[in-house]
Amino acid sequence: xxxxxxxxxxxxxxxxxxxxxxxxxxxxxxxxxxxxxxxxxxxxxxxxxxxxxxxxxxxxxxxxxxxxxxxxxxxxxxxxxxxxxxxxxxxxxxxxxxxxxxxxxxxxxxxxxxxxxxxxxxxxxxxxxxxxxxxxxxxxxxxxxxxxxxxxxxxxxxxxxxxxxxxxxxxxxxxxxxxxxxxxxxxxxxxxxxxxxxxxxxxxxxxxxxxxx
Length: 213
Description:
Layout: H1 5-12, E1 18-20, H2 29-33, H3 41-44, H4 48-52, H5 58-67, E2 79-81, E3 93-98, H6 100-111, H7 127-138, E4 142-145, H8 150-154, E5 163-168, H9 172-179, H10 193-211
Antiparallel strand pairs: 1-2, 3-5, 4-5
Helix pairs in contact: 6-9
């Protein structure tokens, strides 16, 4: 398999499990982010973005390289991919492609016990940095929307408007456990506005009465 770092995700959805090395990446972003090769001054100078019409000038483009997560040089030689139904190893990241109604269940499960929020971070280019590296390095869930990131859009990898949710390994056990606890299809989503308002008033009144006892 030869392609871009972002492209590997779509290949893994239907292919047999596979792995890549730096030789498999036709886009330099993946090997640079994972520390397989030295950073390329052509890109990190910030001069590419203005030529693509993405940034006004190099200094704007350069900002993305100052804040993005990346791995230390020579600490990664291979990257393994597999769809969930063919997974035979403990993954560092689980990336879910979902419609909003599906994503709502997953994100609710993620914060069910802790109440912790999720992130939606990204930049116009180098979407792979936010798809893979930010969740792995920071240990945080990240949410992306297909159609917002230059390389993925130009390569026409996925239909627009889907949500890409990256779950780091640190959070997978709790999210899986919470998915077994929560009610996936909350009834209030089908009640309608007025019924929902009435139920909210009822709950507030119940709590107020309990607090006054």
